Fold this sequence. Notes:
Blueprint: H1 15-30, H2 41-50, E1 56-60, H3 68-71, E2 79-83, H4 91-103, E3 108-114, H5 118-125, H6 133-149, H7 154-174, H8 177-184, E4 189-195, E5 202-206
Helix pairs in contact: 5-6, 6-7
The protein binds zinc ion.
Residues 61, 63, 86, 114, 117-119 line the site of zinc ion.
Amino acid sequence: MTDLNHENESSRITAADALRRLIEGNRRYVAGQSTTADLSTSRRSNLRSNGQHPFAVVLTCSDSRVPPEHIFNQGLGDLFVIRVAGNVIDDLSMGSIEYGVEHLGSPLLLVLGHDYCGAVKASVDGGEAPGKIGAIVERIQPSVEAVVQSGASGDDLYRKVEDQNILAVIKEIQSSPIVKHLIEHGHLTLVGGKYHLDSGEVTFIEV
Ligand SMILES: [Zn+2]
């Protein structure tokens, strides 16, 4: 496969174009028409020589059913991905995000949650969280409390906590001076998204 999709990479693509690439890639994936992502030896060698210029930074869950490169049908060097159960923020995930948007200059930052999230379920259900699993549950807990207060229950409760957690994480990211500065100067667009396990579709939330 040639580098056709990447030939203008050195001139930054806009956030709108980056989002379009994600949407179009996800459409192909949903339709079962994913193209062969660029995993070629020429692409690998080109990235090694010229460095990486990923067009989007994606913070998402570690869930094996939500691999960003597949669900957006992208190849090597396209996405700068941070994965942690529950797509939660801590200093390490925030530092990785800041590196992606500031140092690598990605114009788009996506916080991608998903339905049937195990980390969210564990946070809603409560009970013992051994080892360091509690650290993840703890971060989702404020979203659980906010949604419980709204009176949601059953499956609806899980889905709403997943949504609330995406919004809470976005809010935390917005508190980063680096992210804030880039957004204010028009160099970065922050969007939320939710991946649906059944359809394979990602729905986007503009923030
Ligand atoms: Zn998850």
